[in-house]
Structure formats: structure tokens, C-alpha cells
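thread: overnight batch results

M.L. [08:02]
morning all. the overnight job finished for the chain we discussed friday. pasting input first so we're all looking at the same thing
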Amino acid sequence: MNKWMDLADRVLDGLEITNQEALSILECPDDDVLLLMHAAFQIRKHYFGKKVKLNMIMNAKSGLCPENCGYCSQSSISTAPINSYRMVDKAAILEGAKRAHDLNIGTYCIVASGRGPSNKDVDHVVDAVREIKTTYGLKVCACLGLLKPEQAKRLKEAGVDRYNHNINTSASNHANITTSHTYDDRITTVETVKEYGMSPCSGVIVGMKETKQDVVDMANSLKALDADSIPINFLHAIDGTPLEGVKELNPLYCLKVLALFRFINPTKEIRISGGREVNLRSLQALGLYAANSIFVGDYLTTAGQAETEDHKMLLDLGFEVESVEEMKASLS
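M.L. [08:03]
and the structure it wrote out:
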């Protein structure tokens, strides 16, 4: 008897799992992980079939950030050698959009470092987004930091479909990761995004010395926030950051985390994001039995795997890339 299937059936019947059941997923014996992933896949297949959403990042502004986030090579306290630059010009943003369009990427993510955007930054993004929408019709996600209401209004009016602002960790672990802003600051930005009609995207970074209960709390917090898209990052510890050398994760545990988020957020887009290559390693493909979305290409300051390898992985799984047309339909 597969107890995970019983749990999946309950989720598909509209019931929520208990805290103890959530913890049991993270504590699943390694020998039973395939049974767990099979159960998670029943939920994923019910809501998303075998479709996979593809996302691509444009790192439009790098480094120069006043925040002190312990995981980030772009923070004010990091000594990691990275390329730092101010907001790239519109031509570079449009060039990235063309590349995303040519690769049949569903969502193009414009990301900028910093505590939050200046009004000048918002003007720049708004101008680029309007042209992207006219020229390529891509779904656009912006990730610019803490957002003011009037800035959210302008981004929405320009055509930004989704705004990403991760909670990153649990409320109880937040002060261990950063003290330059609060957990509530992040929640406020997600709520502002929702208020102005953009789809809320908010996720986590797993592997930052949090407890299993913290991971469960993160999944439940995102359920309470009603985030439409949930990127799951696995810490890729970078030399020169406070979390340098932290390596708490292994591929089987990462699969359990993905299954947990699917059980708690059954109808939401679960995206395998930063750190999947170095943490899931040879088990990356199995993660898509719970998740239904991935980032393609490089991340912000770390490299991903080649786009062709991602497409091969999906082909080998018998999964299908969600077309741009299908992505647009899901927004209407």
C-alpha cells in the first residue's frame, strides 16, 4: 500500500495535509522516494498534464546592492567576484526577449538587483516592456525588489504580467539570513503586486540552515499568500558570502522538498529554479514529476545548463513544452 498515494488522493479531493503529514514527506525514507514522486505526479498531472512551463532570466542590473542577504553574491557584504553593472540599455533587454521568443520560452523575467527600483528604473523597464509586448507578445515577469504602490500600477499598465518577490525563507529564520529588511517587507510587496493586478510569483531558497519545520512553514506561507508561481531555489553556496561552504542538501532531499510543495500547493506553478544543477544533479528529471516549470539557461550570477540539454531532458521524459499561446490563454 502506497501511503503517499492515499495522501495524494486526499489532496485531489480538496483536503489539506496536516503539519505532521507535511513533515513526514520531508522525512520520507530514501528507499521510498520513487513512491513519493509517483504520488506527487498524480497531483501534478491532474492540474497540468505533462506540460512544462519554460522561463528565462535577463539579469538587467547586477551587484551594487545595499542589502545584506547572506546567500547573495550581489549584496553589500559579499566579497564574491561578480560582474557589477547598472541597468542595461533597452536594446539589451529587447535582445534577451528575442532570444526567449526564439527558444519558445513562455515567460521572460527581467531581474534587477537592489533594495527596490528607483522611479527612473521603473521608467526604463516600462519602456522596454511596452516594446516587448508589441514585438514578441511574451509573458513578462519583473523582479525589481521592494515595490511601491505607484510603481506597481505603472508596471501593470505597461503590460507586466507577473512580479516576482521571494519570501526566501520562513518568518522565524528570516533574521538569520538578512537584517536589512524584514519578512513583512517582503509580504507587503507580494500583497501590493496582487492589489494592482499582476500575478504574484514568490518562492524560497532551501538549504540555508533552516529546519524541516521551516520548510513546511514556507510552503504554507506561500499557500496563504496565494502565490500563482512558486520558484524553488536550492542554495548554491557562493564563496565570499556568509553562507560560503554550506552544503546541507542532497538530490533525494531536494525531491522530497519539491513533492512537499506540490502536496501543499497542488494547483500552483512549482518551478525548479536556481541550484537545481548542482543539488539535484543526475536526478533533475525526476523533479519534474512534482514541478511543472523550470528556468532555462543561466541564473543571476551562477551558470545553468545549456538550453539544448533542458530540451533533451523534457523530450526524454515525454513531457511537452507549454507553448506561448497556451501561456497567454492561462492568463486570460
